[in-house]
Every structure is written in C-alpha cells, then in structure tokens.
Amino acid sequence: MKKSFVIALLCGAVFAHAGFIKEGMEAKEQGDHQKLVEVYDQACKEGKASGCYNLGVVYEQGTGNVAKDTQKAMSLYEKACDQNFTSACYNLGLMYAEGSVVKQDFNKAKSLYEKACEDDDDIACNNLGLLYANGAGVAQDYKKASELYKKACLSENMYACSNLGFLYAEGKGMGQDYKKASEYYQKACDGNLAMGCDNLGLLYATGKGVIKDYKKASQFYESACNNNYEKGCNNLAILYAEGKGVNTDIKKASELFQKSCDKGLKVGCDNLNILNSPHK
Q1: d(CA 218, CA 245)
Q2: Which residues have CB under 8 Å from 132's CB, separation 6+?
Q3: Which of 54, 68, 226, 269 maximizes the CB count within 10 A of its CB?
Q4: Between vectors from CA 97 to CA 150 and to CA 74, what angle results, nearest 5°?
C-alpha cells in the first residue's frame, strides 16, 4: 500500500512548511503539475524532507503530465528518509520488498520498515511483521511478528488486526486461541476489512472460538463478498448451495462461485464446475 501526498496526511508538515505546502495544494487543484514539481523541487533543494517525499510520489505515480520515473522517485525517497521522514522510508522499503523497481532485497526492506515502525508508522510495522512471519530477509519469528502486528493494530491498522487474529487462530508464536482470533477478526471486520469479515465468518461456520452460527457466518461472508473479497463470495456460495444459514439457492450459489472465479480464485472455479456437474 503506497502512501499518498503528505499534504493531506501529515498536519505537522503543513505547519512546518506552510508556504510550499499551500503552493503545492493550489497547483494540484489547478491541475498545474509542472508547477507542482517546481514547488516540491525547490522545497527539496531547501532541505525540506517533505518536499523531497512529495516530489518522489509525483515521479513514482507519473502524476498528470509528469513522466513516471521510479529511479528518480527512489532517489528522492532516500533523501527524505535520510532526514527521518518515515513515510519515505516506508515507500522505499516497499520498493525493495516488491522488487519491481529495484532488485528485491528483503534485508534493505527490513531496515527501512524498522526505521519507519520505530516512528510509529503502523503500515511499516505491519509489513515488518509480515517479513518476520514469512521469514523474508529475517529468521522466521512468529512471536516477533505478533508483537509488530499488535503495535500496528493498536494504531487501528486493520490488516495488522486480521494478521494477529490469524496467528491466534493458527497458534503461531503463541498458544492457539480462537476466542482472541475472533476478537481481532471482529475488529478488522468492523474496520471494513473484507478479509477480517471472511475469517470471522469461517469461525462462525466451524464454531471455533464462537458458538456455531451459519446465519452469522453468511452475514460476514456477504460483507466480505460485497467488498470484492473473492474468498468471501466462494464461502457464501457454499452456504447457499448447502442451505446452511440461508435458504438453498443454487442459482445464487452459481452466481457467487462465478464471481469468485472471475476474480481469479481457482477453488471458486472448481466449485462452480462441481455445482454444474450432472454427477454431483
């Protein structure tokens, strides 16, 4: 998840450099991207880290009539990160983790995420947790991952809440605890994270950590599906096909399997074939 313009996110930067921020906002509103580049470039040359960061975002996104230049964006992020502008550190870390712009380097991503996380950047903390959970660039450490997820979740990062719930559900880095998993999935779902809703639905469908309730499961799956989460659509389709928590509706099940299949979920395609099979 890339961060967008700091002018809309970081009030401190607005107060610190109100002049160029105001100019930048005016240029953006007027669609004058060349002026936008000039304003941020001048701010960057004057040593304002937020100017370098914003200019980096412009070049990375190729905003308006500005040619996309990811190498220039990286250079600007590095300059801003060196001045402890942690949003730039995060974006740079993401580039190294993804490896689409620069050679993939999880060690560099880790260092950059750590720098941003230490400054309470919740997205960086969550991404650093993912590196530890997957053993990417670091020794796999679920306990460390859970600590980072918890820190990010406390900052209302819903992905981190869902990830923490997953560790509790799987018993990785801690004792297996479906009740705690349900609580973190609920928080993520309440925060409109479709994945959290789908995971919570699965707990209700299986009666783990909560009383088994197919109707509630269907509601959570539906919420996930309505937010374009293909697994939610597939799981809801199964309930319609089997008449669990909802009235049996083969047509509805077929539509939902098709939706999940169209979004690239192979199991959704397989289930659709099973539903349409004359030998089912």
Answers
A1: 6
A2: 138, 140, 141, 142, 144, 145, 148
A3: 54
A4: 115
Can you tell me the distance from the alpha carbon of 185 to that of 172, in angstroms, rounded to the nearest whole number? 16
Q: How far is CA 203 from the centre of its chain?
A: 22
Cβ neighbours of 202 (radius 10 Å): 19
Q: Under 8 Å CB-to-CB from 141, ≥6 apart: which residues?
A: 132, 135, 173
pTM of the entire predicted model: 0.84
DSSP structural state of residue 204: H
Tell me if 254 sits within 8 A of 240, measured CB to CB: no
Distances (CA, A) of 10 to 6, 75, 151, 259: 5, 21, 20, 38
User: What is the DSSP code (8-state) at residue 68?
Assistant: P
Write down how long the chain is: 280
| Model confidence pLDDT, tens digit, residues 152-183 | 999 999 999 999 999 999 999 999 999 999 99
How many Å apart are CA 258 and CA 232, to the nearest integer?
A: 12
> For residue 64, what is the DSSP state?
T
- What residue ranges of the chain have pLDDT lower than 70? 1-33, 64, 279-280
